């Protein structure tokens, strides 16, 4: 198995953790990611420390509190494949967040360096920008949970729904050079869900010089680490693919560079 794929544990840990990515485990500097699964009535507490967090309710309902704020009965979708925008909580550094599950609950915890600039806040579904991107079998649905136009110190968070037989993160693009205004350096995780669950997604990761050139078969519930290179995703016929992207780097802006060999697709409809 590729070292770029992080698999969930077969049974959640006592606190519900299914998988964990840290900068140390990934071998990079900025992005951390966890998926936690709670049973009804179970609680989860996290101290943000020197990180800022965006906690995305993948599915289920919860009461949530930080040191200064409380939100009750948040959540709406019971599956990511309902394709409605999620509820999320932004938590600054040096804060604390607690979830109490009102139903079975899945939470994605997105982390990156924080400076304590912004207070905790609820990101409700109506605050999430929804767009359709691409055309033909490049078409996909985007939920901009924490884009660069919204307040945060480091994090960029977005979820993508790729219909069966379609491609996304396409044409192939990269963001691995700190070379603004042309390109920004952003580490990225892809958290995949597939429906039906026995399916898989295809992700290729490659660099211009092909020093990195891998094609991955990614299963439901797995994370792919993308520290560099182009990274398109394909959904095989019969299987819908969802992924949650977390990005962070030295500058909080998403400026990507398309593979010149495939950039012509931007002008074809």
From TrEMBL:
Protein name according to UniProt: 5-deoxy-glucuronate isomerase
A Pfam family: KduI
Record keywords: Isomerase
PANTHER family: 5-DEOXY-GLUCURONATE ISOMERASE
Enzyme Commission code: 5.3.1.30
Source organism (scientific name): Paenibacillus taichungensis
GO MF: 5-deoxy-D-glucuronate isomerase activity
């Amino acid at each position: 198995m590729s070292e770029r794929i992080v698999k969930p544990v077969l049974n959640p840990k006592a606190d519900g953790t299914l998988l964990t990515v840290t900068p140390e485990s990934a071998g990079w500097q900025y992005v951390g990611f966890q998926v936690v699964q709670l049973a009804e009535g179970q609680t989860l507490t996290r101290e943000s420390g020197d990180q800022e967090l965006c906690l995305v309710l993948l599915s289920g309902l919860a009461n949530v509190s930080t040191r200064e704020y409380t939100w009750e009965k948040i959540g709406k979708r019971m599956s990511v494949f309902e394709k409605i925008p999620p509820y999320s909580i932004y938590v600054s550094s040096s804060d604390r967040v607690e979830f109490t599950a009102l139903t079975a609950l899945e939470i994605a915890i997105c982390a990156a360096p924080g400076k304590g600039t912004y207070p905790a806040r609820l990101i409700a579904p109506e605050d999430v920008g929804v767009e359709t991107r691409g055309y033909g079998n490049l078409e996909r649905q985007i939920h901009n949970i924490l884009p660069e136009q919204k307040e945060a110190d480091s994090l960029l968070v977005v979820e993508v729904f790729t219909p069966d037989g379609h491609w996304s993160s396409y044409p192939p693009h990269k963001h691995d050079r700190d070379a603004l205004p042309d390109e920004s350096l952003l580490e990225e995780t892809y958290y995949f869900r597939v429906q039906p669950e026995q399916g898989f997604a295809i992700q290729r990761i490659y660099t211009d010089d092909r020093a990195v050139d891998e094609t991955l078969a990614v299963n439901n519930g797995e994370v792919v680490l993308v520290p560099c290179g182009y990274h398109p995703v394909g959904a095989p016929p019969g299987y819908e693919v969802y992924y949650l992207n977390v990005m962070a780097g030295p500058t909080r802006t998403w400026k990507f560079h398309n593979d010149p060999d495939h950039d012509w697709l931007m002008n074809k409809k």
